[in-house]
Amino acid sequence: MDTAGKRILMAKTGLDGHWRGPTVVAKALRDAGFEVIMIGMARPEEMVQASVDEDVDLVGLNIGGHIDVAVRAINMVRESRPEVPIFVGGVVPPHAKRKLEALGVEVYPPGSQLPDIVAAARRLTGLA
Amino acid sequence: MNAKNNKDRVWKSASGLPLQKFYSEDDIPQEQRQRLASDPGMAPFHRGAHPGGYRTKPWRIFQLSGFGKPEDENERIRFLLEQGETGFIMEHDRNTGDHCYNVDHPDVVARREDVGLTGAVMQSVRDIDICMKDLPLETSFGHAGGAVVQHAPFALAGYWTVARHRGIDLARLPGTGQSDFFLTYLGCVTKQQIPTAAGLRFNADIMEFCDKHLPRWVPVSIAGYNGADTGLNAYQELGALFANSVEYLDEIKRRKTMPLENAARACSGVNFRASMDLFEEASKMRAARLMWQQLLERRYGITNPKVANLRIHCVTAGSRMTYQQPLNNIVRGTVMALAAALGGVQSMGVSGYDEALSIPSEHAHQMSVRIQQILQEETNIEAVTDPLGGSFYVETLTAELVERAWEFFDEIQEQGGFLATLDSGWLHERAAENQSEDFRQQESGEQVIIGVTDHKDDISPFEVDGFMGVDDAYDVALERLHEVRRTRYEAGASRALKELETVCRDGSNIMPAMMDALEAEVTLGEIGDIYRSVFGDWATPIQT
Amino acid sequence: MHEQLKQQLEHAQAGDRGALARLISVLESGGSDAAILERCLRARHGGGYTVGITGAPGAGKSTLVSALLGEVLAEPGRVALLAVDPSSPLSRGALLGDRVRMQPHAGSPDVFIRSMASRGHLGGLAMATRSARRLLEACGWPLTLIETVGVGQVELDVASATDTVVVVLNPGWGDEVQANKAGLMEVADIFVINKADKAGLDATRRDLEGALASLPPERRPQVLETIATEGKGAAALWQAIRDHRAAITASGELEQRRLAQVRSELKGMMDALLANQVQRLFEGQDAHARVLAVSEGSLDIATASDQMLDLLYDQAAGRV
């Protein structure tokens, strides 16, 4: 199915500037036909505003650091856009991964392969 | 990769150099063959910095460490020193440090639980004092933190101020900061940063200040590591690193404020990455020494062997530490450390086996030290200098890396120089190309990572849960920030801050005013506010 | 469907940003819903003003726009931004990164930022940019900035979609100024030499002013200097935009420009509609028969095309 017009917001929850992972993922999503709106390091309220104004179909968060920061961001985005699915990637220790999965968020830790991430984006935006 | 595929496989080094089945004497380029006559410790130094090698001085075990409150970090550093670490790195919290924010900055408050995860929060000289409690400043090699360029003047001035309070003569104080362009503008592009031109000024200021007051201090440490771990391959890492050196040296040459030879010496302690291609990485360290000697002689006419003799700190590739089956990373760390040791580096840090999961746990840290101790004490590797010297393969590889690295160096000059390639994003593009290629090769099966692309095992019996630090770092930091503001001599602090702003604007050396500011207990965020108003923000060339 | 769209429009006009954002998506996806929505926008001509910002990639447009947003907000004012980036011609995906630079303002309720992928549309705008601007105006946004795709040369489309056009250049671009002289003069109301702290500023200013010398003084665009990363010159730019607006309003030129904008958009829409109709015609039997006839030599191509034009009119008439 056609990905044309499906929009994904990509944000980083932390203030850490490693861009290697998120950039490779963003390019893979673009190459799969998605429109990827990148906002970089953002506070939860900035993610909320962007997810609303940009009318996105999926939110991808690059997380690292403390799990509570990610959980706060996830909860705030959900509050204003409850219908939009969220997936996350980044340095996520196993205990944090379990916690996020319990919240219904898909987690892609380091070593995840791009085709799997692209497939998830297609599935989560209702394309597959 | 199973055996039957090997028939059609194109064998290449990690940086893409084509590899032969075996090498003979004829394969070594003529120029390199002539260099076989030079012993270790002789120019052009590719065979080693010193003829005695590790017999004379074992490599320094130098681990990045830091988390929590300053007292937590102090405790971890002392633990590592007890375990046999021979230098120490004082990592500052990166949320606050990299951005020069205090913890009450809205961008930090929004991520308060992250505070203290990557280093201790040090907002004033009081915090730095706590972190440095009882550390052997004069007898071990200290890293004051300040890896990011805009943070370095604060971190260095803080360390030096505490040392001075303890009655240490700065002229005798050993150590380093980092103030690295690769980290700041390529590998870890933070939310806010002074522009590269202002960064160059800071680093030249630090070099001048050390030349006058801290002759034993290594003022800047260019970290090709951060370029390599972002995607630059071995020869790109080499070429870009020396393109960076040239920016510093040309700036000092333009200023005419210190002898160029001293400036070259100030730049002669560098940082490379060691990754998994054992022989290429060992050859890279040899190539680096050779290139530094060539650069100084050809471009600046400097031949003094004390200066032309590159000293290398090497860190094993954090990006090659896998999330899956993390104990495999102990093996990877060992191989990478071996590559660095075979290349004759002076100092080493091994990434924690839990690098892809979290900051290093105490156990992971201990293993990083143990790996190096086992290599040093049990393998007899220290006995002979440049053990790979004369190998047909390694000599050829060394020469090829040198050749390609100078080509890459020239490409950077054609782009307008190292700073220009950071401003335009050209260097980021080179790194990104390699990142994408890596992913492609992993998908196609050309690149195998055990536990990730092959031999996957979801039910690993050796699961590691990652280390989460302490949970009161933010609260304590906030309390201490208020405390400093309440109890410092306010008129002195505001006078020092004003003076710092004047200096930032008028272009004179920033360090004396920074020393005064730290002495007057000016806080990190106040200094950052001045930077932001004077220098503005770097226009990041990448989208994250 | 009609009712639902109308309701959403009412919400958007009452200040619901989510509704506004969804309606922009409707316009972007085109088709019948977009046409229905456009019909609702007809009678709601607001007093909005539109400023276009164009220039080559890397000129610093986004950073400049961010600084400009700061000036507008400080007034205080409200401002919407449509930031257009190219879609990949192969995958049709896009990386839209302009918001990164807008971060200081992205949280303000007085700013609405929308990233748009060009979706194959050439000329620096996305197909739905004009429609989105109209929607923003209908929803009470008094000022819309449109940041165009930077594709290496000045994009002429922006002039037919905006009231004031700002062209962003950099020092050292003397050659570009010479090469694009005609285009620059045609579109620019204000020139900005951004990154004014870089070498080559004077030469670029000289080249630019030389190129503009032939214009009568009252039509000569202002040339400003900015260092957007430090916010320098943003206030002067905002002032220049306001001056330009006042001048063309007083002289009656704004009215002429608006007419030209409508003419250009209407003609563009007709072109697209006609192309669509022609395409449909060629998918049918009538076209096929004539193609065969011309190829056999039983019909000449001029007559064939006249006949096809008649068929096209019939087809259009039948549709009404």
UniProtKB/TrEMBL annotation, chain A:
Domain B12-binding intervals: 5-128
Superkingdom of this protein's organism: Bacteria
The entry's keywords: Cobalamin, Cobalt, Isomerase, Metal-binding
GO MF assignments: cobalamin binding; isomerase activity; metal ion binding
Cofactor: adenosylcob(III)alamin
UniProt protein name: Cobalamin-binding protein
Annotated organism of origin: Kineobactrum sediminis
Species classification: Bacteria, Pseudomonadati, Pseudomonadota, Gammaproteobacteria, Cellvibrionales
From TrEMBL, chain B:
Keywords tagged on the record: Isomerase
Coiled coil: none
Keyword Nucleus: no
GO molecular function: cobalamin binding; methylmalonyl-CoA mutase activity
Alphabetized InterPro entries for the sequence: Cbl-dep_enz_cat, MeMalonylCoA_mutase_a/b_cat, MMCoA_mutase_a_cat
Pfam families, per the entry: MM_CoA_mutase (PF01642)
Region annotation (Disordered) ranges: 22-42
Methylmalonyl-CoA mutase alpha/beta chain catalytic domain span: 13-536
NCBIfam families assigned to the protein according to its UniProt record, in alphabetical order: acid_CoA_mut_N (TIGR00641)
Name by which UniProt lists this protein: Methylmalonyl-CoA mutase
Organism listed in the record: Kineobactrum sediminis
From TrEMBL, chain C:
One of the Pfam families matching this protein, by short name: MeaB
Domain of life: Bacteria
Family matches, as InterPro entries: GTPase/Isobutyryl-CoA_mutase, GTPase_ArgK, P-loop_NTPase
Key words, A-Z: Chaperone, GTP-binding, Hydrolase, Nucleotide-binding
GO molecular function: GTP binding; GTPase activity
Gene3D superfamilies recorded: P-loop containing nucleotide triphosphate hydrolases
Chaperone listed as a keyword: yes
Family under the similarity heading: Belongs to the SIMIBI class G3E GTPase family. ArgK/MeaB subfamily.
Name recorded for this polypeptide: Methylmalonyl Co-A mutase-associated GTPase MeaB
Lineage per the UniProt record: Bacteria, Pseudomonadati, Pseudomonadota, Gammaproteobacteria, Cellvibrionales
